[in-house]
Design brief:
The structure is a homotetramer.
Chain A lengths: L4 E7 L3 H4 L1 H6 L3 H10 L5 E7 L9 H5 L3 E5 L9 H13 L2 E5 L6 H7 L6 E13 L13 E11 L9 E8 L4 E10 L2 E6 L12 H14 L12 E2 L8
Parallel strand pairs in A: 1-2, 1-3, 3-4, 4-9
Antiparallel strand pairs in A: 5-6, 5-7, 7-8, 8-9
Chain lengths: ~240, ~240, ~240, ~240
């Protein structure tokens, strides 16, 4: 019996193949970098999947074996097939955890689960970001200090068009004058979703230890915690109580 | 200059045309009954629209003249064109209020805005419903007592697969043993959404004064309160603050 | 019959009497400045009260005639009598609106209503604050743009030890590197509470039009909207439904 | 190094000593019954404390060794010393979990942390309660079905005068016609609080396996997950960023 949390790291994996500078930062892809640091955790079992694999590497079977799915995308959101999006969507509502990274705010799956445009302000000038911890007792804040800094980042600014998070864990400050709700928890169906803003492909952000800490925490927070055998809702049902 | 809140009452308007018993209860349609009691309010201006009108009566022009849209549907959710759903969706994110009634929990527009299945348990045996007021200071609770009763209702029971409401105003008790979050407020984009569970077509629920009170309150709560000229999010923007 | 919203502006009124520089900014006191701009609104009726008045100017009778109470304090939180705090507390739970300004985050009444320490980081170097609008459709955001700036402010930074707001309307950016949840809505009992961070006594912040706009909006949002005659909770009650 | 979660079960322990019928149900006290089923969990280490012990058994040292505190009280809320309440309060804000059971809704510590009256409707006629699971993916719902029943209970009904929970996990249905938010999660400071309604002293409710499951789940959810060395908020701080 498998006691480990099974994590699938999905990446569109285009920038790293087409741009030498990005390839230099992430030679095995962003998914490879994330899989590497997660793979050092004894309670986690890691696999990866990418856009250009068949069914984007997210077959029914892969998802059935996934407790937490991590998603990075940017250039090719529209290339993700709707059938795969629907498959991921159903699996999240059934309880799979989902961690949405950075530019995946515009992914089909995140927009579908949020029900909003998920738009935001952005700017890429390599400015500094400071990530403040708002809920210091939350599992995703475990091991962090009051804040941590990312030396060079792409700015993501408010207004971020998402529903108010069920729990707002992180707010970012940017040197150029903006703020951003950069760590947002959502419950949807039986699934837990975490949006985490840092992670632009042109900076080595996923090698930073605080960023890795947040992602490790998020995986543990998002893993399914239930064992219901029935459907989520019951449709037509007889009365439980005799009616007078 | 128009100072009144412009309300459009949308109804699929099928049951009333095809079923004599329902027609007897709602001879001018459910939309007609709702338009009638709302029309007696001096600050509201009411129009109606139905499924079988061109573009379901919800043209760009109609929506541009609508502050609050009320939606009732049941049998024909799939017949609503995606283009019209997208139009309503964009208008809600831009600030239009939306009131979703009863079986419209399964409408395309509500599912799209919620990002979940919106499933629930249900049973139709004409049992009693008691609607408890959870947030007594909320505008939608204005004029209500601690609870009100609906003598005969269709049961809608938990688990209701929606995101946790931004504000939970009403919870219903049913004689047969279930509970339901029957009055749920959501903010999405700049728009306000209220889901209100009572309203099955075979009972004269929309003639009940407490039900009418809730809908009148909801219209006033959901009306747009802003006057922003710019887009909701800014896309690429220059830094506001000089970077060192 | 009184149709106007009755606003009482409370100020501890010590800085303005003891410090010439502050008196030069607020010659009639901070309460006087707030009362002046609110008094120009046709739907509002304004009175003021201060710490050194008998019962701090907040007698049972005054509170019974108050729909919304605005509170500014800083130096003398401990001088506010517990009996008056309890009186305000009961009135808020019964439905009176309460607007807590700036350093009143440490007032007895706010700490009592929040149930937390209400601590925060702070720094007074006259830096710039930029206030971002997070919920653009909220009544308190009415008439604002995407953000507004306060040229010189006292910094209030996270982690702000309050419960997560029921609605988070504003987040501030500070030049020195911090962020702050600077506009927070709470429902407590039947009352609505708004915490608004800007307003240090050494800067002319309450003369700024966007700040005035927020306070005017908050008064209208916080006014009571119900008319229940009974107590908030019922204590011992007989069954509503016959038990089998 | 202690890897177990240290749980202290606190009970006022009066009913069981003064009433034979209650003593027959809980011969070792309600705290004894709770300690017994929790003590069978290998990851938990259980101690108990009661009102009539010195400092109510909750010395600084005991609290410093407590990860999660469970609280049951009913008759003697006013006998709990304010100094001990303040001690528990500070420890919760610092990160200790707190589980408030049944009639402890009126305990000093819960009212202080909630900031509201915590009043409710109640009735004791031994009616049936059905507890519905609203958030099926929440850790506290682990192992439960769609609902569970308590054959005989004291009714606790809305309106429950508490802040809207950060997460609403359970809603109860009562045979006599009421509903109740019976499983409510709150974050306060770094601490997690869970209010759980079932547990009247005259019924053997804490022997019921679903009730035990909820309490076990709640202990694990509420345990501290952080390791910050600094104070919760920073007071006066120098700028992090050089000011132009």
């Amino acid at each position: 019996m498998n006691e480990k949390t099974r994590v699938t790291v999905w990446n569109e994996y285009i920038h790293e193949l087409e741009n030498h500078a990005i390839a230099a930062i992430y030679p095995r892809g962003i998914h490879g970098a994330i899989a590497e640091f997660l793979g050092q955790e004894g309670d986690l079992e890691i696999t990866t999947a990418t856009l250009r694999q068949e069914e984007h590497g997210l077959t029914e079977d892969v998802l059935a074996q996934t407790d937490v799915l991590i998603w990075w995308g940017h250039r090719a959101h529209d290339d993700v097939q709707d059938a795969v999006v629907d498959r991921v969507y159903r699996r999240v509502l059934a309880g799979m955890g989902l961690i949405i990274l950075h530019s995946a705010h515009f992914s089909k799956i995140f927009k579908k689960l949020m029900g909003t445009s998920c738009g935001l302000r952005w700017r890429e000038v390599g400015e500094k970001e400071r990530v403040w911890v708002i809920e210091q007792g939350h599992p995703i804040a475990h091991g962090l200090g009051h804040y941590f800094e990312i030396p060079q980042t792409e700015m993501y600014g408010e207004r971020f068009d998402v529903p108010a998070p069920d729990t707002l864990v992180l707010i970012s400050w940017y040197q150029g004058g903006e703020v951003f709700r950069s760590g947002c928890c959502y419950n949807r169906g039986r699934g837990k979703i975490f949006y985490f803003a840092p992670g632009h492909e042109t900076y080595p952000i996923y090698y930073q230890k605080e960023v890795q800490q947040v992602i490790k925490n998020a995986v543990r927070w998002a893993q399914p915690t239930f064992s219901l055998g029935e459907a989520l809702s019951g449709g037509a049902v007889p009365p439980l109580e005799p009616l007078g």
